[in-house]
């Protein structure tokens, strides 16, 4: 059975840890209205649509993670864990175009691995890097002990079926003196907007909740999880990024689409009112955002968005 939970669509903002069935549902939903016939066109369109639906927050965070990671050299062996569409790998290649490093992208959903393969290989036109892609869940990494110099799990561990096991696998596969960077969310700026719109239309309904334990919003829980996995040196800090778009209308439109299943069963009038209230809430909450265009850090784009505060753990073995 295809998953119908409204919470499922939230995973689009955190590309990781999805089942194959869930991912296929998401990708089909994003593209069913206009699927290109050519395979390359299909993946190009899907990649663009997927990226836009995330509000750019995971890429913005990924860029930051790469900036604080140890230098990438010819000896680097990188794991992009719970890779989603391969944002970490893409950004490493953009910033290190001439470095013959090795990058391995894994995700538990084959559809996401296919998308990552296309998107990452498109960034590797110079052919210096060695790339590999595999369908592997984060809790059961199929690599030898002490394999990677860098291991980055960007907004994945909080959606693993077993976060503690996933953390142990990160530790096991990291080389001695290697660095792992693992992120979770502390706060999600668009959830209050969804709640405001819900309360305006259906004040007696239970407010929508993200399907993860509240523990993952806690620095203490993330630190404890990594310490119990074996890491003795863990530093955690916060980083603010933005769920953003070209305009309030575009941003609220993405959110209506992402959380469309939330209003399943509502009347047309209620659904229209929800969209109206969501946009009204967004207009009051957004701030101006500037960030580099994907693939071209020399060009900045002007956006509006809401804050997403990440917990960033830097752990060394």
TrEMBL record:
InterPro entries linked: Methyltransf_11, SAM-dependent_MTases_sf
Species whose genome carries this gene: Neocucurbitaria cava
Record domain Methyltransferase type: where: 79-182
GO terms for MF: S-adenosylmethionine-dependent methyltransferase activity
CDD domains: AdoMet_MTases
Pfam families linked to this entry: Methyltransf_11
Name used for this protein in its record: Methyltransferase type 11 domain-containing protein
């Amino acid at each position: 059975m295809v998953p119908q939970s409204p919470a499922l669509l939230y995973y689009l903002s955190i590309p990781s840890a999805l089942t194959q069935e869930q991912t296929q549902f998401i990708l089909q939903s994003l593209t069913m209205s206009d699927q290109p016939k050519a395979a390359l066109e299909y993946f190009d369109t899907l990649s663009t649509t997927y990226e836009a639906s995330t509000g750019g927050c995971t890429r913005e965070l990924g860029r930051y993670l790469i900036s604080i990671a140890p230098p990438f050299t010819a000896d680097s062996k990188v794991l992009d864990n719970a890779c989603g569409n391969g944002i970490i790998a893409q950004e490493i290649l953009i910033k290190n175009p001439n470095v013959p490093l090795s990058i391995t992208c894994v995700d538990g959903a084959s559809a996401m691995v296919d998308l990552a393969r296309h998107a990452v290989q498109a960034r590797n036109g110079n052919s210096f890097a060695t790339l590999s892609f595999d369908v592997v869940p984060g809790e059961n990494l199929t690599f030898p002990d002490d394999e990677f110099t860098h291991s980055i799990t960007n907004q994945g561990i909080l959606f693993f079926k077993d976060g503690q096991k996933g953390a142990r696998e990160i530790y096991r596969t990291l080389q001695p003196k290697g660095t792992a960077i693992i992120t979770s969310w502390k706060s999600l700026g668009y959830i209050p907007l969804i709640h405001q719109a819900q309360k305006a239309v259906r004040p007696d309904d239970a407010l929508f909740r993200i399907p993860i334990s509240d523990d993952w919003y806690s620095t203490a829980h993330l630190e404890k999880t990594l310490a119990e996995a074996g890491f003795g040196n863990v530093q955690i800090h916060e980083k603010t990024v933005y769920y953003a778009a070209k305009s309030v209308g575009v941003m609220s439109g993405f959110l209506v689409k992402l959380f469309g299943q939330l209003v399943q069963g509502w009347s047309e009038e209620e659904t229209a009112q929800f969209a109206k209230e969501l946009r009204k809430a967004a207009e009051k909450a957004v701030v101006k955002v500037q960030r580099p265009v994907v693939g071209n850090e020399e060009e900045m784009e002007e956006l509006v968005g809401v804050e997403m505060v990440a917990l960033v753990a830097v752990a060394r073995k």
